[in-house]
Write a structure and sequence with these properties.
Layout: H1 3-11, H2 28-37, H3 51-54, H4 58-71, E1 78-81, H5 88-96, E2 101-106, H6 109-121, E3 128-132, H7 135-142, E4 149-153, H8 178-186, E5 192-197, H9 202-206, E6 215-222, E7 225-233
Parallel strand pairs: 1-2, 1-4, 2-3, 4-5
Antiparallel strand pairs: 5-7, 6-7
Helix pairs in contact: 4-5
Amino acid sequence: MEEAALEKLEKQGIHQWSDPEEFPAHLKKYWYQRHRIWGKYDEGIWMTEDGWFGVTPEPIANKIAVHVGESAPAEKTIIIDAFAGVGGNAIAFARSGRWEQVFAIEKDEATIKCGKHNAEIYGVGDKIFWVRGDCFNIIPRRYSGNKNTVIFASPPWGGTAYSDDKVFDLSQMQPYNLAKLYHDFWKYTEHLILYLPRSSDLNQIARYAPEDKKIEVAHYCITGASKVRTLSTNQSKSHHFN
């Protein structure tokens, strides 16, 4: 990309970093992980600074896409990524071929531009419907009447403080705690997947299991390091994560 075009993007908070000397010092660890996070990073991936905190590493995003696709009832043909960010999970869902429609909601303008661009890099730009706005307003307004919907939500966790806790209190997660996420999204689908910190309190999660049903928790790791847990409701069948 020409220098003038890059400068224009950077004024919007969008970056295509290729030089480690230009990479923000406080994000340096992500520079060394960039190819693990994005397999096509060198093909021109766009990021915001905050995007590094929230993007799902590509191998985990792909695993989640497979697991969600296999566990969701066959009649569920639409998936909504409620906090799409720079596109990691939405891209994986679109690449899986499982869904008739993939909707990606993101309220930040620079971030959604990154997501759209990154989807093009991965060849799924025409398979994702991007919606800019607040998911808590958009989902009730646009998707509440559709019974074929799965909601995937990877919310902000309130910074990196969770990593210091052996057991993370999900009632303290900011800006949206577990209770808000669960109750707000459960109104619109019984098939809900929440992407939560790896140290999330399992006792808190268990309280949300509906009567006579189960909540399934998957623990994802990459190169031997624990990364994240997902909470899934209303599995269509007994599903074992590998």
